[in-house]
Specification:
By secondary structure, this protein is an alpha+beta fold. It is built from three helices and four strands. The protein has a four-stranded mixed β-sheet, covered by helices on one side. A hairpin with a 2-residue loop joins strand 3 and strand 4. The radius of gyration is 16 Å and the shape is elongated.
Length: 107
């Protein structure tokens, strides 16, 4: 399992009170926004309750191509910690550099 430390420094999405459908959209947007900003460790707070939001969050995370791994926070089972896949970003940057010269012009 992943060892994400310093959760206080991570961006956090709080889904308390959200519906399953809204949570699904919010999670996708949150992951994509952080990925674009090159923030690769985030926290999603879904609460404990009946586990409906947790199941939906985990389903979205499993389907996502930018998620490397995820798991429940050891200290708070109402929160899922997510590590985004940095290698996808590096591959995209490498492909861009191969297609463009140092001035950013397409070769």
């Amino acid at each position: 399992m992943m060892s994400l430390l310093h959760r206080s420094n991570m961006p956090e999405l709080d889904l308390h009170g959200e519906t399953r459908d809204t949570a699904r959209v919010l999670v996708k947007e949150f992951l994509n926004d952080n990925y674009k900003m090159r923030i690769f460790e985030v926290a999603i707070v879904h609460g404990i309750g009946e586990g409906i939001l947790k199941k939906e969050v985990h389903k979205v995370l499993k389907e996502s191509k930018i998620v490397q791994e995820f798991g429940l926070d050891n200290f708070n089972s109402g929160c899922t910690l997510v590590k985004l896949d940095e290698s996808i970003d590096k591959n995209a940057k490498k492909a861009y550099n191969m297609q463009h010269n140092s001035k950013g012009e397409r070769v």
